[in-house]
Design goal:
Glutathione_S-Trfase_N, Glutathione-S-Trfase_C_sf, alpha+beta, Glutathione S-transferase Yfyf (Class Pi), Chain A, domain 2, 55% helix, Glutaredoxin, Thioredoxin-like_sf, GST N-terminal domain-containing protein
Length: 212
């Protein structure tokens, strides 16, 4: 009983997530890399219908984190930075060029993930509800983002040592999950080589996407 009480007090945060979300995965990878995994209770939800999630987050989106003091955080960038604060730093370099580069790569990777999510959703709408111009715009954003990351691949941390590298790994993993047969690697040899190594991190392997 004493052990269970101590364990309950140690698991101090609660993360609401969906296993198909690249942004929720980014938070989970961040938690793993910061050695915070055993302090977070994971709660799988359907963002479209979960009443508890909606009561916590007015946007009813994942990821949503309930802190140990009961305060609620949402949006993956905020949650990741908060977790880095809890862990006393690690994934966010001090202000300067290294930090700006990491945050820029986070922005590019998150943009790829967002565009991919919208494109996937549009592809699965009835044909008469799709917007060809919107789909083309999202596809172009993904391609341009990947091209930019290819240019930077030589400076990306294979150990996921900053939030930029974490975000890139999650974006690429999401593309593989949604479109396993689309060959984004063909024109991005260096980025593909980077992901072949970074994708074997325990934090990445242990948070694989899957359908609910």
């Amino acid at each position: 009983m004493v052990f269970l009480t101590r364990l309950a007090s140690w698991v101090s945060m609660k993360l609401f997530y969906a296993p198909t979300s690249p942004f929720a995965r980014k938070v989970r990878v961040t938690a793993h890399e910061l050695q915070l995994g055993d302090r977070i209770e994971l709660v799988v939800v359907n963002p479209w219908s979960d009443a508890e999630l909606r009561s916590l987050n007015p946007l009813a989106k994942v990821p949503t984190l309930v802190r140990d003091d009961g305060q609620v955080l949402f949006e993956s960038a905020l949650i990741c930075e908060y977790l880095d604060h809890v862990a006393a730093g690690g994934l966010y370099p001090a202000p300067g060029e290294a930090r700006w580069s990491a945050l820029l790569r986070q922005g590019i990777a998150d943009g790829i993930s967002a565009a991919a999510g919208r494109l996937f959703a549009d592809e699965h709408r009835p044909a008469n509800e799709r917007s060809g111009s919107v789909m083309q715009r999202q596809a172009a954003a993904i391609e341009a983002g990947l091209d930019r990351l290819e240019r930077d691949a030589g400076t990306l941390s294979r150990e996921l040592a900053d939030i930029g590298a974490v975000s890139v790994a999650c974006a690429l993993g999401y593309l593989d999950f949604r479109w396993p047969d689309r060959a984004w690697r063909d024109r991005r040899i260096e980025l593909a080589r980077w992901f072949d190594v970074a994708g074997q991190r325990r934090s990445v392997v242990g948070t694989q996407h899957h359908l609910p």
